[in-house]
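User: Design a sequence. Structure:
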């Protein structure tokens, strides 16, 4: 079957679907499925805009609300993950996934589904070490910290995905897996985006959590976005035994949704001809959710997932074939995801703007039904109960959060990953600055132009086959000290830690705010990833 893959959509659904229609008219190509790798921006109204962690001038309604209201319907089944430019209050309603509009499905904080026998997984958000070990405690109305931490990847989601044993065909993440740039045309990438060089050379660009998942899941395809540049790589995985068949992953990062940009690619995927056309639950994933339900946390208290270190009675939460069979029996062997989309918020009306509307914490019936069916914790319901009961463990403590923001880990225990991809001072510390000059150039290892004038050829993008050496593998077992030693040997200064917004002047490069000249500032990524092309260099 044909699968279309898009990069950062930024709410421009009309533009994305119009591009598909143009491909059909010119090349008679129409996908069976569309995947979007984050920054989808499912914005329904003005309150949703207030829950996006972007400067006010970039808060545009775009066109998703027309699909939410039913004015339009997605012409192709669309499955997406969250990024760091999202209406977090909307996506938070569906922590286990669900329909955000007819024919548009969100995978949740992490999720796995099936379509025509193809197994599709994904993890939403971006990696930040200071939030990685916390629970999902945020709820609207957000403050300056929680509006960002709401979309930060948590260790519980990575842990769940690592319990999977059956092969994954396609996996999506918003930020790139760390080290993946070593398996494609790295020099061309650095030629186009020279300000990535220090992070690439110190092996700190990208998400270590995603890298760990890449090593564990070994999917056939891995798609990402976030950096607004097209890049292809081919990774040959090492085998654990002589009996194990070698596996390889084709990686592709897509550009953002703009005219004349390579933001969309169509590929051919082997599928099960006997499978139906409906999106389906994945039985193993449901079984894993049930097995790990006791680990779900709704507090901001940091903690590590169980591991085989002598401190936990149980650390393996992978499921048996019997557990998978029980899920199938629960569903009467009908894995079809119900089309139970429900409006949970008023839709934007251009004729009646509501600029002062405040976001509220909403419990989505889809999540209630899903949790009740499979006996899972309804995260939003638990958060709501904690709010009603008054200050307590589930409540947000702003003073405590501000103290934690000054460190890359918790006070009690260091983060299990060594570095935090925070930027320098900017309005939004999670943003990256991308020089858009020359951004149309394809950074894959072939000269493919997947524009409407040229039929896309994905297979030609992967000619550079390499095996990741053990020294580059990032895992939760990596010690903080040992990794820092490697960086020091490479002559790389330790990355400047993230500061709270109130302490950060609005400048990209400069001296240390604390007067410590021994800490080297590096030209890093700032908020202009989200800007229009003519503002990218000045934001």
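Assistant: Done.
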């Amino acid at each position: 079957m044909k699968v279309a893959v898009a990069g950062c959509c930024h709410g421009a659904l009309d533009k994305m679907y119009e591009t598909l229609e143009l491909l059909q008219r010119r090349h008679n190509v129409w996908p069976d499925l569309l995947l979007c790798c984050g920054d989808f921006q499912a914005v329904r109204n003005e309150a949703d805009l207030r829950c996006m962690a972007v400067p006010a001038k970039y808060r545009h309604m775009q066109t998703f609300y027309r699909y939410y209201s039913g004015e339009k319907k997605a012409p192709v089944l669309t499955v997406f993950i969250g990024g760091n430019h999202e209406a977090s209050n909307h996506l938070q309603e569906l922590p286990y996934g669900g329909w955000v509009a007819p024919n548009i499905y969100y995978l949740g904080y992490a999720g796995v589904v099936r379509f025509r026998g193809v197994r599709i997984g994904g993890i939403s958000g971006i990696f930040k070490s200071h939030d990685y070990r916390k629970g999902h405690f945020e709820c609207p109305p957000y403050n300056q910290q929680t509006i960002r931490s709401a979309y930060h990847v948590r260790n519980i989601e990575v842990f769940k995905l690592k319990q999977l044993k059956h092969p994954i065909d396609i996996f999506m993440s918003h930020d790139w897996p760390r080290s993946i740039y070593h398996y494609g045309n790295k020099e061309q990438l650095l030629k186009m985006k020279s300000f990535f060089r220090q992070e690439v050379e110190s092996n700190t660009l990208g998400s270590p959590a995603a890298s760990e998942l890449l090593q564990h899941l070994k999917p056939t395809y891995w798609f990402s976005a976030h950096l607004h540049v097209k890049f292809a790589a081919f990774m040959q995985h090492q085998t654990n035994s002589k009996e194990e068949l070698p596996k390889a992953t084709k990686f592709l990062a897509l550009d953002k949704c703009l005219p004349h940009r390579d933001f969309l690619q169509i590929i051919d995927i082997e599928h099960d001809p006997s499978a139906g056309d409906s999106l389906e639950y994945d039985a193993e994933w449901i079984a894993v959710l049930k097995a790990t339900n006791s680990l779900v946390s709704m507090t901001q208290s940091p903690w590590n997932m169980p591991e085989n270190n002598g401190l936990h009675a149980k650390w393996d939460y992978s499921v048996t074939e019997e557990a998978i069979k029980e899920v199938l029996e629960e569903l009467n062997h009908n894995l079809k995801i119900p089309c139970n989309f429900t409006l949970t918020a008023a839709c934007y009306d251009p004729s009646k703007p509501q600029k002062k509307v405040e976001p509220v914490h909403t419990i989505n019936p889809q999540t209630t039904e899903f949790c009740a069916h499979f006996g899972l914790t309804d995260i939003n319901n638990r958060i709501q109960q904690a709010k009603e009961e008054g200050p307590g463990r589930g409540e947000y403590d702003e003073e405590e959060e501000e103290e934690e923001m000054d460190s890359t880990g918790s006070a009690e225990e260091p983060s299990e990953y060594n570095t935090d991809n925070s930027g320098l001072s900017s309005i939004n510390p999670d943003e990256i600055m991308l020089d858009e000059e020359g951004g149309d150039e394809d950074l894959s290892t072939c000269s493919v132009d997947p524009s409407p004038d040229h039929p896309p050829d994905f297979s030609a993008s992967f000619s550079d086959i390499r095996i990741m050496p053990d020294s580059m593998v990032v895992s939760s077992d990596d010690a903080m000290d040992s990794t820092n030693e490697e960086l020091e040997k490479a002559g790389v200064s330790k990355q400047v830690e993230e500061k709270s917004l109130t302490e950060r002047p609005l400048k990209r490069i400069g001296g240390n705010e604390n007067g410590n000249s021994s800490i080297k500032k590096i030209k890093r990524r700032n908020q202009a990833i989200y800007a229009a092309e003519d503002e990218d260099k000045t934001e």
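The CA atoms of residues 112 and 323 lie 17 Å apart. Residues 392-415, 418-429, 433-539 have pLDDT under 50 and may be disordered.
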